[in-house]
Amino acid sequence: MSASTAARTKSGHALADPAAWRPAWRRPAPLSALLAMIACSAGAAVLAPGVRDDVITSARGDAKTTLPTRPNIAPFDLVRTTVRREGTKLVFVQQVSGRAGATVPTAIGKLAGSEVFSYVWPTTLDPAVVGFEGKTGTLALAATSHPDFDDTPLYDENGDGDPKNDGDLWHAHWVVLTPDAACGPSALKVRDIPAGTKPKMPATWPELPIFIDSPGYEPEIAGNEIRVALPLKEVGFPDTFRFDGVTAALRVNASVHSPLLCVVDVFDVASGKLTLPGTVTTGAPSPRNSPQGDSH
Questions:
Q1: Are 82 and 56 in contact (CB under 8 A)?
Q2: What is the mean pLDDT of residues 183-203?
Q3: pLDDT tens-digit profile of 269-286?
């Protein structure tokens, strides 16, 4: 399998019947994730070089991959990560050294063992602010692409009448991340929902057995930048919170046993050590076109 290069985003949302979408989950593939455990509670930030309030700048050319397919990872080589307020919106941005969104996984024709490529913003926000059970892990916004399955059952993003065939288009999720040794040493997964339990989930939870939400935010991709804007009210108008940036590959497990979705390769971390040093203060809006923007 080799990674394909087709940068596309989702558009044309159309409602579909969520009851018609029920995926079959399988067993985990071997895992070798390097992503370290991060705390979900706010504490003192460790400011890394290149951090200034709501901007984290990163060294160019330091992204790496351990995937045997050796995908082009310039689209995941982080150079600037920010989260800021723009009017009534909260905007999550990552800039990379390559063309954002250009590399996506190649379909393998089945769910089990399929890969997910992602741009991720881990935060110190409590999962409860977007509707998950509170204090259950690290809340992160993620823009993802995965051609072998679709996890936005309420939307027909490519407008072809089938809401289950457009997972390859870049789309956004809220996820809750937790460490799990079964994914590899110091590795993370999307938190599982144990059988027989019913933790609180957001209204747009896609009914997968993991802590994931499909809120319908559409990523914007232009040149070397990917950005996701969402209403500030949807995270409860926090005064401040911290964040980081990560680009990574995840893999769907090969059986019904947890962990279902593990991080298997970390391409790049904005802060270098995932210390969540970026700080968002939502009291005053920032202009859309920041003078600090990176040009490529």
A1: yes
A2: 95
A3: 999 999 999 999 988 566
Give which of 96, 66, 43 is closest to 242, Cα–Cα: 43
> Which two tokens mark 62?
């330091």
Paired strand residues for 92: 83, 228
| Cα–Cα distance measured from residue 204 to residue 212, given in angstroms and rounded to the nearest whole number | 9
pLDDT averaged over the chain? 81
Tell me how many helices (H) and strands (E) the chain has. 0, 15
For the entire predicted model, the pTM comes to: 0.80
Asked if residue 166 has pLDDT above 70, the reply is: no
Angstrom distance (rounded) from CA 122 to CA 21 = 28
3-state secondary structure 196-213: CCCCCCCCCCCCCCECEE
Tokens of 87: 């009017």
- Which segments within the chain are labelled E, that is strand? 51-52, 55-57, 78-86, 89-96, 115-122, 138-145, 171-179, 188-190, 212-213, 220-222, 225-231, 240-243, 246-252, 261-269, 278-281
Confirm if 105 and 117 have CB atoms less than 8 A apart.
yes
Return d(Cα 257, Cα 162) in angstroms, integer.
Answer: 29
